[in-house]
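Researcher: I'm comparing several assemblies side by side, and this is the next one on my list. It has 426 residues spread over two chains. Same procedure as the others: predict the full complex and return the structure.
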Amino acid sequence: MKHTLDAKRLLCPMPVIRTQDRIKSLSPGDVLEVVCTDPGALNDVPAWCRINGHKVLDTKTVDDEVFIMIEVRDDGEQA
Amino acid sequence: MSKQRKAVALISGGLDSLLAAKVMLEQGVHVEGINFFTGFCVEGHTHAIRKKDKAKPKRNNALWSAEQLGIKLHIIDVIEEYKDVLLNPKHGYGQNMNPCLDCKGFMVKKAVEWIKENDFDFIITGEVIGQRPMSQRKETMPIVQRESGAGDLLLRPLCAKNLPETLPEREGWVDREKLLDFSGRTRKPQMALAEQYGFKEYASPAGGCCFLTDKNYSDKLVDMWQHRSSRDYELDDIMMLKVGRHIRPNDNFKMIVGREQGENKFMEGYRKIYPYIHCSSHKGPLVLLDGELNDSDVELAARIAARFGQGRDADEVEMSVTYPDGKNTVLKVKPMPADEISEAWYV
């Protein structure tokens, strides 16, 4: 199932925190698209995914908005 | 085979917490990181709002540290709970509005809650005796242990040999002999250990990891409290203190003037919260207005705002004033001469 998280106008690390909290409520295989305006999210959300075991499917920047597509993985952080 | 013990490390993104976690990993302890976001944390991105900083790496140093260590990191939003720490610090403030000792106690207390919820065994921090004048002194180390409720579940690997034994040491979960005895403000032992571990790059912010240790930031925070009826604040308030020139020509309002394109862009996101001014006849910055303004205040603000645009030397410029409800007026004003803008207005 695909979900969207609006993290626009939030500065680091809030987009990461919102992503982390949202993924806790999702199931393995779900896809979450995070939309941010802080360009730093382009580094930090994928970094958070790498260390917590989720897969970044795609990232792109369109008109000052950053889109990060994440596949929730089973071995991801659930604490 | 003995059970692998689990420790949570307070990861700030600086060198000390990185090393403390590494020392534990080297002893075979399972380590996960925890990082608390108070709203006042210094982050690369917050600085990168300004265009001039765009060449700097846009990274969160706590995440970066965790990735170097190969550990998970849990970032926890404590903005609401932190208000009480900042507003009512039992141990007072440091040189600026930094309640360092209360802050450390608060974070360790949150870590105690976290290890109970997540079945971890103990807590580690990168504290070093004598490293910080307020929160990292020999006398304050036991205060943090006591007031946080961590007691001897709190291990400081970088200076453990200078402190009484903790439970992880007594129980043999970690080898005290392999812990360290760092002390004082020198960074040389940390730098040598970093080299030993192969950490070639790490963050070393001069004022620590918190905006509250910064005088300019603290001055703006105090000004905000003094001109409001309460010392309460929201995240948007404290974010706005990080951007723009803050100018208070009257007690009842303050102007936030974007200093360059990056700040203007960031401030655009606040146009539905604050009234704002921009010059419609010339290029100029975005200016947000914080407070209750009457018509003469708005005209004064428009004249000051005009001073920061390219029409500063014109006889008259058009300044567009827009309110959060969408109402808009255009004022024709003479830009205020530089010598009429009082230095005392700058917060």
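Model: For your comparison table: The longest strand of chain B covers residues 30-37.
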